[in-house]
Design a protein that fits this description.
0% strand; 9 helices; mainly alpha; single chain; elongated
Length: 206
């Protein structure tokens, strides 16, 4: 097999695997893990049932792979925010805008999927611990930005971990609210960050 043929084969294989993962994100996010069958995933991805096992050992293997990749993807987005801006406030503004850009539906599916995994009762304890550890690392990255912002007096004083959780909860909550079309709004990074932003009139005892 020539190198060019080998590259094309790898590209085709990667594309098929990605199609299965994207189909799984939508189905796991809408139907849930238990209700989603492998045949549902392969049908949505327009691939044969047998081909599925060329890429994944089982439905659980695909599920865990997708969850861990989503969490890793978020960490990479945090890296990009820190590369683009020196200011912690600007970093969180960019992150907030990035979270709400692109397809709202895709963002919701990803968020629901991560929440499902954190509270699942169908994964092994070892796998759940790995997912929880990844999620904690994601929170720690936001916490680190907030600590830097407190030092530079851009953010309010307070427990940085709690503030990180508050921030993530607000961002994800807005995502879900807009998806359900309860009271859809155009998300403003400036408004989201008001809870964190330190104002000149605030003293050190805030």
């Amino acid at each position: 097999m020539s190198s060019r043929t080998s590259e094309k084969f790898k590209e085709l294989r990667d594309n098929r695997q990605q199609q299965l993962k994207e189909a799984a994100i939508v189905l796991f996010g809408t139907k849930g893990y238990a209700a989603t069958k492998i045949s549902d995933i392969t049908n949505k991805a327009e691939q044969s049932h047998g081909l599925f096992y060329h890429y994944f050992k089982s439905k659980e293997d695909l599920y865990v792979t997708v969850i861990l990749e989503l969490l890793t993807e978020f960490v990479h987005i945090v890296d990009k925010a820190e590369e683009k801006h020196d200011s912690p406030l600007k970093q969180l503004e960019w992150l907030t805008e990035a979270t709400h850009s692109g397809s709202l539906r895709d963002g919701v599916h990803r968020h629901i999927l991560i929440m499902q995994a954190l509270y699942s009762d169908y994964l092994t304890q070892e796998v759940k611990e790995e997912i929880v550890e990844k999620y904690r690392f994601m929170v720690e990255r936001i916490e680190h930005i907030i600590i830097k912002g407190q030092i530079s007096e851009e953010f309010i004083e307070g427990d940085a971990e709690e503030l990180a959780v508050y921030h993530l909860s607000l961002v994800h909550g807005l995502l879900l609210t807009n998806a359900r079309k309860i009271s859809p709004i155009k998300v403003s990074a400036e408004k989201v960050l008001r809870q964190l932003k330190r104002h000149p009139e605030q003293g050190d005892d805030q």
